[in-house]
């Protein structure tokens, strides 16, 4: 029964009030009440509301069971008692204004909190309805009370829930919009900012218009199917289009809802641009790792081959040097020996390339001006490539870089050659240098350490590369050229050398739009280029040298070369023998020439043993491998110098003289 029905029942009760004025004290109803009166009393007691009648003087005439129980008035007879005497002064003062209005002939509705007899606090919605007699005279009023505690609690919870929902929606970092059928009826602030629209612009818009054209059909079909109750994916990735026409990657989650009985969809939109970038970065790092692993595997093999080949070349070039010293300069034998020496040096250049990508080897590292190096190298390359137009943009204040000049020339020549081969009909090469400061984020993706770098960029207008080719260009022996036209070692060597210089190399290319290689080399701490000392002839020397190597051929040719330079040579085959000899004769030995790779005791351990015997032991490290790896580690432990096998008599002479002068 609702409030209207209760008020109607009260109206019917008014005609029975006169009969109720003779209620007995115990039962509070007249003993001779007819069956209709008994039915009314039964009805009022059964209703889940409070009902009372108060006369014009404020005396209780009637009240039902709930009224008495709710207010704890079960004891005694209420008939004829005044309201304030029954309720108490404090409780009466709370309702007195409403009582006065009702007795003045006004219907009053109010709500208040009432403490029930069990100690619980309840919200009571009360209505005081005046009872009017003839001529509009107020005879009293009916009091109707309804316990609305649960309703008020539910309303309060609903308000809190709505506030929480509003806060969640409005403060969400995700965009949220609601569509009724196909049109947007609501969008939160994040979605408006994400899309560049105002809320008024989005309201009424067809929902599929917020998506990129390639996704409009898909999102429209899925929304329609979803509202029909069909099973379609509720979470998937799309591309959205902003008001300005730009697009971004997004992830949407959709849920069917009812809006005033009409099917609709609530859609959460998350901008996943950063996630896509992170995924791309992770994929790039994974590709770099795979590339590094490939290079390491092939490099280990190639490095071993280069090392052994260098030892063989050492024997050949050493003997050529000895024969050249004996042959008259004007003789045909002397000329033939020069041809042989040139061929052997070409073989040495090949092993330098192998070591370049295998170990990233550096040999003679000096501060260099890359502007000068690039300009000079291209001048040599461009003489016979007149169909190529080159453009230069060099930084005037370019920092110096510590590089192996010979290796960097090979790097540049390979990059120039790669560009030229990509432009068979001619084209343009752009050469650019600049200073760069690389931060933590950049080097975390590309390797290296943050700091000052010199950037060199070589860009061509050639045919470009597809993604598959781009992912493999630094692999050793990978080539897109016809058989016999390329070895696939050029760019692999470039990669290895740059990494060996602790640098970074990146490449960008699109099919049909050319290619751009960017090389980053750590800037040198030196401010000036160190001038090389020139030597027109071999310098003779004196002193006692300990030559250490595990190969007999190297010992033979090495000792002969040293003897020819005027030194007394002591031979030691292997590290164990060298330590044994040095422990006995270190006072006589001026310099140890130490091989790095030996089976019984390696160069590193041998060096440590020698320094333990004599902390000032002068040691020149010789190896068929490059300066990096173990050789670099030995030098960092205090070794005095390094010479790359195969070396010439002139190179050996210079190296020994410089070390012995330092110790003099």
Sequence-ordered SSE layout with sheet pairings:
Blueprint lengths: L2 H12 L2 H4 L14 H12 L2 E7 L4 E4 L1 H6 L12 H5 L1 H15 L4 E8 L5 E12 L5 E10 L1 H23 L3 E6 L2 E5 L1 H7 L3 H4 L10 H15 L7 E7 L5 E13 L2 E10 L1 H54 L5 H28 L5 E4 L1 H13 L5 E6 L7 E4 H17 L5 E12 L1 H7 L4 E10 L6 H4 L19 H11 L3 E6 L5 E8 L21 E6 L2 H13 L3 E6 L1 H11 L5 E5 L7 H11 L5 E5 L6 H7 L4 E4 L4 H15 L1
Parallel strand pairs: 12-14, 18-19, 18-20, 20-21, 21-22
Antiparallel strand pairs: 1-2, 1-5, 3-4, 4-5, 6-7, 6-10, 8-9, 9-10, 11-13, 14-15, 15-17, 16-17
Helix pairs in contact: 11-12, 11-18, 12-17, 13-14, 14-17, 19-20
Please characterize this protein's 3D structure.
- With 664 residues, the chain is α+β, with helices and mostly antiparallel strands.
- It folds into four domains: 3-149, PAS domain (Beta-Lactamase); 172-271, Beta-Lactamase, CATH 3.30.450; 365-522, 2-Layer Sandwich (Heat Shock Protein 90); 544-663, Response regulator (Rossmann fold).
- Helices cover 44% and strands 24% of the residues.
- Strands 2-1-5-4-3 form a five-stranded antiparallel sheet, sandwiched between helices.
- Strand 8 and strand 9 form a beta hairpin.
- The longest helix is centred in the middle third of the chain and has 54 residues, at 273-326.
- The radius of gyration is 49 Å and the shape is elongated.
- The termini are far apart.
- The model is unreliable at 15-34 and 531-536 (pLDDT under 50).
């Amino acid at each position: 029964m609702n409030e209207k029905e209760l008020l109607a029942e009260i109206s019917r009760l008014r005609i029975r009030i006169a009969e109720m004025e003779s209620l007995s004290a115990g039962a509070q109803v007249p003993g001779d009440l007819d069956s209709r009166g008994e039915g009314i009393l039964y009805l009022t007691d059964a209703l889940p509301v409070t009902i009372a009648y108060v006369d014009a003087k404020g005396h209780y005439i009637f009240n039902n069971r709930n009224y008495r129980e709710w207010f704890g008035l079960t004891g005694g007879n209420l008939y004829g008692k005044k309201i304030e005497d029954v309720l108490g002064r404090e409780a009466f003062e709370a309702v007195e204004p409403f009582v006065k209005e009702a007795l003045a002939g006004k219907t009053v509705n109010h709500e208040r909190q009432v403490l029930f007899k069990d100690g619980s606090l309840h919200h009571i919605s009360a209505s005081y309805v005046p009872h009017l007699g003839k001529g509009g005279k107020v005879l009293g009023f009916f009091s109707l009370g309804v316990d609305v505690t649960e309703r008020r609690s539910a309303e309060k919870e609903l308000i809190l829930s709505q506030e929480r929902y509003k806060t969640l929606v409005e403060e969400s970092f995700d965009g949220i919009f609601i569509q009724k059928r196909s049109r947007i009826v609501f969008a939160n602030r994040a979605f408006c900012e994400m899309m560049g629209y105002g809320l008024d612009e989005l309201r009424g818009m067809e929902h599929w218009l917020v998506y990129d054209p390639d996704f409009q059909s898909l999102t429209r079909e899925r929304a329609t199917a979803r509202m029909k109750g069909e099973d379609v994916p509720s979470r998937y990735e799309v591309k959205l289009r902003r008001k300005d026409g730009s697009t971004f990657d997004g992830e949407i989650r959709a849920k069917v809802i009812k809006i005033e009985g009409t099917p609709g969809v609530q859609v959460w939109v998350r901008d996943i641009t950063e996630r896509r970038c992170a995924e791309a970065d992770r994929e790039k790092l994974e590709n770099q790792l795979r590339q590094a692993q490939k290079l390491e595997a092939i490099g280990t093999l190639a490095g071993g081959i280069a090392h052994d080949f260098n030892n063989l070349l050492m024997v050949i070039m050493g003997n050529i040097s000895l024969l050249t010293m004996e042959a008259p300069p004007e003789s045909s034998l002397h000329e033939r020996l020069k041809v042989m020496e040139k061929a052997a040096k070409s073989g040495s250049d090949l092993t330098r390339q192998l070591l370049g990508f295998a170990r990233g080897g550096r040999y003679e590292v000096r501060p260099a001006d890359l502007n000068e190096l690039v300009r000079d190298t291209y001048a040599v390359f461009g003489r016979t490539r007149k169909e190529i137009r080159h453009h230069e943009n060099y930084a005037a204040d370019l920092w110096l870089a510590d590089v192996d000049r010979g290796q960097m020339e090979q790097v540049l020549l390979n990059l120039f050659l790669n560009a030229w081969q990509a432009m068979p009909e001619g084209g343009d090469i752009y050469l650019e240098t600049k200073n760069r400061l690389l931060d933590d984020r950049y080097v975390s993706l590309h390797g290296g350490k943050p700091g000052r770098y010199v950037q060199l960029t070589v860009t061509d207008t050639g045919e470009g590369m597809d993604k598959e080719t781009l992912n493999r260009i630094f692999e050793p022996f990978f080539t897109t050229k016809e058989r016999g036209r390329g070895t696939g070692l050029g760019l692999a060597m470039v990669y290895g050398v740059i990494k060996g210089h602790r640098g970074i190399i990146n490449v960008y290319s699109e099919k049909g739009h050319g290619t751009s290689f960017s090389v980053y080399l750590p800037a040198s701490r030196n401010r000036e280029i160190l001038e090389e000392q020139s030597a027109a002839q071999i310098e003779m020397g004196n002193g006692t040298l300990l030559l250490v190597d595990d190969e007999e051929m190297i010992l033979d040719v090495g000792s002969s070369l040293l003897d020819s330079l005027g030194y007394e040579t002591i031979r030691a085959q292997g590290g164990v023998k060298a330590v044994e000899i040095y422990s006995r004769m270190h006072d006589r030995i001026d310099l140890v020439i130490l091989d790095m790779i030996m089976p019984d005791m390696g160069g590193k351990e041998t060096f440590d043993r020698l320094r333990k015997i004599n902390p000032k032991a002068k040691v020149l490290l010789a190896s068929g491998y490059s300066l990096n790896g173990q050789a670099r580690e030995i030098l960092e432990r205090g070794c005095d110098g390094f010479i790359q096998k195969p070396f010439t008599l002139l190179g050996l002479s210079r190296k020994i003289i410089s070390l012995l002068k330092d110790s003099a």
